[in-house]
């Protein structure tokens, strides 16, 4: 591609240049960084980039690869933070509902997990106390004790437990007088 003059500033020349460090919104990542091997028509004066259909396709392919690398890296970091210090890998697998050995595979191979799995692992790694909270949330029984993350006060714990009761009663009304206090 021959350099052409820039329609944006009128002074610079537009030619394919490395987009290394340029950030694009891609899927759930608002600021995914492009790598050095992506080249897009860019003005050498004002920095404007010009994206036609063909270039858009190249950007998409490039960002798909960068996205997969980012998801793998974030997931591996989360797994390594959580296991084995906070929870055993097998225990965590059971808790988030994936098959045995899956988290080990994610930790050691460049496998891209689904975005919801990556999200859960990232959230848990950010606050490992929530591992225990999740364990209790999955209980069918004893919902009053379900939420055991450290509440700041007895009042807060009580309110949480009551809210939990109300929501549960809305989803599964008991026959003959729900505990939901008027909620149906
Ligand atoms: Zn320009």
Number-wise, the strands total 5
**What ligands does this structure carry?**
zinc ion
Report low-confidence residues grouped into runs of 5 or more: 176-184
Radius of gyration: 25 Å
Termini separation comes to 67 Å
Shape: elongated
Share of helical residues: 40-55%
- Portion of residues in beta strands equals 5-15%
Largest sheet: 3 strands, antiparallel
How are the strands ordered across the major sheet? 1-2-5
Mean pLDDT: 87
Structural class: alpha+beta
Order of helices and strands: EEEEEHHHHHH
Report on the structure:
The protein is an alpha+beta fold. The chain has a domain of 126 residues. The chain has 6 helices and 5 strands; from the N terminus they run βββββαααααα. The chain has a 3-stranded antiparallel sheet with strand order 1-2-5, with no helix packed on it. Strands 3-4 form a two-stranded antiparallel sheet. The structure holds zinc ion (ZN).
Question: Which features would summarize this protein structure in a list?
Answer:
single chain, 184 residues, alpha+beta, 3-stranded antiparallel beta sheet, two-stranded antiparallel sheet, 5 strands, disordered C terminus, binds zinc ion
